[in-house]
Amino acid sequence: MAQVPGPIRAGLIFRVGFTDESLVNHGITHLVEHLALVGLGQQPYRFGGKVEGLRTVFMAEGTDIEVPTFFRHIVATLASLPVDRLQHQAGILRTEAATRQVSPSAVALADRFGTRGWGLVAAQEFGLVSVTADQLQEWSRRWFTADNAVLFMTGSLPERLELELQSGSRMPVPPAEPLPYQMPAWAHHRVPGVGISMICHDSVEAGVLAGVLGRRAMNRLRFVEGLSYEVTAELKRLDLDLHHLFLWADGLVEKLGAVRSDLLEVIDQLADEGATPEELKTENDTLRKNLGDPNFAVHQLDLAATDDLLGRPFPGFDRRLSEIEAMDGKSVGRVLQESVETALSIVPDSVSMLDPRFTPLPNWSTDQVSGREYRLRLPGNDMRAKLNRLVLGDAGITRTLGPGKSVTVHFRDCALANIWNDESWSLIGADGWRLHINPADWKDGSQISETLERHIPAEIRVAMGDRPVPDPESLVVGPPQKAASGAFFSPRRDSWWLLVFIIVSVRLWYVFDPNPFRSGVNPTASFLSGMI
Ligand SMILES: [Zn+2]
Description:
Blueprint: E1 8-14, H1 28-37, E2 46-51, E3 56-62, H2 66-79, H3 86-99, H4 104-113, H5 127-130, H6 133-143, E4 149-153, E5 185-188, E6 193-201, H7 204-224, E7 231-237, E8 242-250, H8 256-273, H9 277-291, H10 296-310, H11 317-325, H12 329-340, E9 344-347, E10 359-360, E11 372-374, H13 383-387, E12 389-392, E13 396-402, E14 405-410, E15 414-420, E16 425-429, E17 434-437, H14 445-455, E18 461-465, H15 496-500
Parallel strand pairs: 5-9, 5-10, 15-18
Antiparallel strand pairs: 1-3, 1-4, 2-3, 6-8, 6-9, 7-8, 11-12, 12-13, 13-14, 15-16, 16-17
Helix pairs in contact: 1-2, 1-3, 1-6, 7-8, 7-12, 8-12, 9-11
The structure holds zinc ion.
């Protein structure tokens, strides 16, 4: 509770987010959130809901009658979800997904985490297709409970505010587990700038680092060099310890090589020298100014409530101020030195990464399974028949598209199997690799169907309906290929599914930022923004 002028602002937060989902049911939390709001229609007060990585939030802004009414509605619908509206809401969510863009930071997270945990930020919500009414109710009963929730509110406590949530248990924060790639690394993506993603541990220094890094990069790239318009450094909590530090600068295509070099120089210099006393003072002054704003209390409440929900002590801003005052700028540099070891740079196709510290992420799978080999149902002299090969064993499946180009999905790591009406399969591995297999394309294809049926568990299968016509992934129909190419199949990072995948808006993530004011975002102005 806090005394803040204006209408009551309140948030009911549950410790469940998309990192608690799997690729198969991804979107189920989002569905529950939408269904809980069904029946409210339009109201004379502001309200909304949103699903983030670690939490789901319902918020309202209104009078001491309106706000309790809103929360009573949420609690009542959560107890008995209007599942008859499931298809209707799933349609709305698909529309919502189609209009959202994958942010560069989400692209980097998907590279790092594949199709689990934080990688789902860039993944298609397959749960909108796969989830049943029973599964939705079960999800709501398990996660949306009194013991897994926290409520914050400004103003005076309304006389009667009883929210009858079912009991359950406080859910732990899932650890963020990146894929075992060698870092620092880089990857090509269709992004309009250069991004450098890093992982760092929870600390006051990390918050200061993000602020200083953002200011230095903005100064160099925009104000001195005139290369970029948007320059940002965001810090986002991934679990109880790890944070994602993402530095981004946009630019014209012909300038992006210079943008890349400048960003790396800014990083290296700060890692080497640490933050100056003036930079530490700027961080402190900015925080002090925010604390003087009565509306900032809402943001403080939100952070304190969230920390409580995550099971960590809320250090408070007074303590942070004194810690920044006592800070040695060198320690900020040391945090950055450690973070650079985990760096993943994403650059558009036009830009190369020449820095020898960075190795490219693999464009193809690095291992293959052994087993029975299959050839395409084509004459032996057809180029496609010469290049394409499928090996299917008990451990998984490898498709080879030419020398050095193969994609493997191990059954034990298969995150999702889409099954289409033509009996073809799209398998997606935990590392994000995707393989489309139509048994009809291959000689002895019935054996392929049998083996897949045997090894793919029912719980990861999702029926997808008809294939598009013409089918872009058909291997034996259409003009013969002249040479090996990705035309029939795209490797992971260029694959269509990643491009159409949706994300949960990055605009929402500042809420988890332990130092959210550094980027110039006014958290009070954004209290209800971006709710979906
Ligand atoms: Zn939504």
